[in-house]
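Q: Focus on the chain.
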Amino acid sequence: MHRCIICMGSNYRRKENMAFAREQLQKCFPSIRFTAEQETAPLVFRNPALFSNQLAVFFTDADEQEVISQLKEMEKSAGRCPSDKLYEKICLDIDLLVFDSRVLKPDDLKRAYVVKGLEELK
């Protein structure tokens, strides 16, 4: 079994999209455990829309690329499309931060909301 830590976020229809993500993630990864949602200001966007962010941990037999593919499909199902980047609209973003003991997104692990979420997952 592989241990995965993910971070998800949304700045558009946040409540609906985050609920959708949790529902889809629970279907794919029944062992999943979520942190509390955190509301954050945008880090790099000029768009002032607030974000909802949340971390989760789960175990799976799927390999890293399969997990990433499943997460990308969930983003698309929530309405994410490439043209949204132009408007800094994030329907749903789900990133695989850690796969087993490998850190895939080291810069993300330094963000305050991620640090807080990781503490909650312990």
Observations:
- The mean pLDDT is 94.
- The first helix runs from residue 14 to 28.
- Residues 68 and 96 are 7 Å apart (CA to CA).
- The beta strands are 2-10, 33-34, 38-40, 51-60, 93-99, 102-103.
